[in-house]
Each structure stands twice: as structure tokens, then as C-alpha cells.
Amino acid sequence: MIFKQRTFFGDAPERQPAEHPAELERRIAHYLAVSPGLDAIDVTVTCSGNTVVLGGTVATSEEAARAEEAAAAVEGVAEVINHIEISKVGTG
């Protein structure tokens, strides 16, 4: 094992408390990214307090429902407002 010399001597990055909207957005976005059967690359997450607004597009209505369920499962979320649209690409 090789140990590299430390090159960063600043302060550690500041973490937001779990109840902070930015931290809640980060946790929800991560949960959406790892949820099976969901391509959340075009899904946006915005929090106001513990209310979550999902936006963007997904391929199917099932994916939109999965995204809503996944966001609601994250600790600290009280309400999910789903504004996700179904993509029209490839429908002819």
C-alpha cells in the first residue's frame, strides 16, 4: 500500500444539517439515482422545508410514479408534489 502525502490543508467541507433543504434535496436525488427501474437523469428535485417538488421528464408514467414513491420514502419528507412529465420522444 502506498500512502500519498496530504495535498489539501484547508478546512473540511461544511455539511448542512439533515433538516436543511439542500441536504434533503441531495438525499432525494441520490435515492432517485439508485432506485431500480427508474432513469432519473432528467428529474429535478426542489425542496421548500420538508415539501418536495419533482420536475423534469421520464419515459413512462410508471417511472413518474416510482420517482414519487422513492422521494416519499426518504426520511424528512412530509409531502411530494409530482410535476414530472412523460417524454414524447419516440412516440411517432
Q: How many DSSP-defined strands? A: 4
| Mean model confidence by pLDDT | 84
Q: What's the helix-strand series?
A: HEEHEE
Distance between the first and last residues' Cα? 56 Å
Continuous helix count:
2
What spatial form do the alpha-carbon principal axes imply? Answer: extended
Biggest beta sheet attributes: 4 strands, mixed
- What would you call the structural class? alpha/beta
**Helical percent range?**
25-40%
Counting copies of identical and different chains, the oligomeric state is single chain
Strand content: 15-25%
Low-confidence stretches: none
Rg over CA atoms: 17 Å
Structure characterization notes:
The protein has 92 residues and is α/β, with parallel strands linked by helices. It has helices at 21-34, 61-73; strands at 43-48, 51-58, 79-82, 85-86. Strands 1, 2, 3 and 4 form a 4-stranded mixed beta sheet that branches. The protein is extended and about 50 Å long.
Short structural description:
With 92 residues, this protein is an alpha/beta fold. The protein is built from two helices and four strands. Helix content is 29%, strand content 22%.
